[in-house]
Amino acid sequence: MHLGLIIGIAAVGIAIGTAVGAVGIGGVLLVPILTVALGLEVKRAIAAALLSYIPSCLVGVTLYARRGSMPWREASVLCLAALPAAYVGARAASVAPAGLLEAAIGLLLLAGGIYALRPPRRMPATRVSLRPATLVGLGGGTGFLGALTGAGGAFVLLPMLLLLDTPVLPAIGLGQVIALPIAGLASVANAAEGLVDVGLAAGLAATLTIGIAIGTPIAHALPQARLRRLLGAVVVLAGVAMLVKVAARLL
Asked: Which residues of the chain have pLDDT under 50?
């Protein structure tokens, strides 16, 4: 890699990591930026991004847990439900209609983001109270779509948690923890196909980790209502970007 590409990857990793740490959403933008802005081949970018989520999200989960923002009971149910679904999603990735899937994801992001921008019906407490059946459904759906698209999973889980009036900080923490089983299983599949560039993944992981360390204190310093609006704005932008990409492909 030449120096310009290395600097570009470092800048992208830190910026995306800061977004992930502060508002939970960001990983979904990593592959498009690597491919469109930096010119990396898409399969190589997806494989490197997924592998880089493992160490960086481990740091994010640790930071959120230290600040008391990780609901472990809910996290364990989500991750267990995501495991088999992520395996199925990874196997289905080669035959899924990409345009239809991207449109569905864009609409989901748009709906969740618009909801987050509205004043909540009530200001939720700091505890998460979702039924086990709801958590299993969320974990399974997130695991399947996250592995299918190579985007990690938080972009699916966070809008749904917001729709269920989950407090923002625990929602961000859950979005980070569910990326671990999804990225782990997908990385095993990518390694078997010879798609993983370990050097690129390591560079992304290091810079994502720096960004997450920057973004996590920002999330805990902002008022919850402002953080909810910020998260909603980021989710809406991600949804619009996904739908614009689909529309451009159809034109």
From this structure: 123
